[in-house]
Design brief:
Layout: H1 2-18, H2 34-38, H3 45-53, H4 68-77, H5 81-84, H6 113-119, E1 125-127, E2 139-141, H7 144-155
Parallel strand pairs: 1-2
Length: 157
């Protein structure tokens, strides 16, 4: 019996030790066109190494308007700005410019990659991803521009 228990222990341990967690890392560098990262003359050795071991796009058809916040929201929602509601980096301000930006996740009108991951009990992280203040992201390193604007606003009060 002792030999069987020992064998079971080692089999379980062996299976556990070789199990690999899967990770998905989505990297978007705003304005980085394929001719830069596809051409070895531009350097970017680490980017090209990631391409060899992962997946990459040879080209992305931008969603109109081709502006940072709508494009990144389209990337994580799978729908165009007319559906997700982020049309530009800043909201339309008919009564005058206030300096607001589309920072807040609540402005997105459709589910996103973050909500799908949360629903599937997966852990998520974001680094300076647009429109993610208050998003269901476990580890969210927000854009420092957001904090500078908020800090300046609070100092002026």
């Amino acid at each position: 019996m002792k030999k069987i228990n020992t064998l079971i222990f080692f089999l379980l341990f062996a299976g556990y030790s070789f199990a690999q967690e899967s990770h998905v890392v989505l990297i978007s560098v705003d304005g980085l066109r394929p001719e830069f990262y596809m051409n070895p003359e531009w350097g970017m050795v680490n980017v090209r190494q990631g391409m060899k071991t992962g997946a990459y796009a040879e080209g992305v058809r931008g969603s109109f308007p081709t502006v940072t916040y709508p494009s990144h929201t389209t990337m994580v929602s799978g729908v165009l700005p007319a559906k997700h509601g982020i049309y530009y980096n800043t909201p339309v301000e008919p009564l005058g410019i206030t300096g607001k930006w589309f920072w807040y996740y609540k402005d997105i009108k459709v589910p996103t990659l973050w909500t799908a991951a949360k629903d599937a009990d997966l852990k998520t992280a974001g680094v300076s991803w647009p429109v993610t203040v208050g998003a269901p992201i476990d580890y969210n390193c927000l854009n420092t521009l957001f904090f500078r604007k908020i800090r300046a606003k609070n100092v002026m009060r």
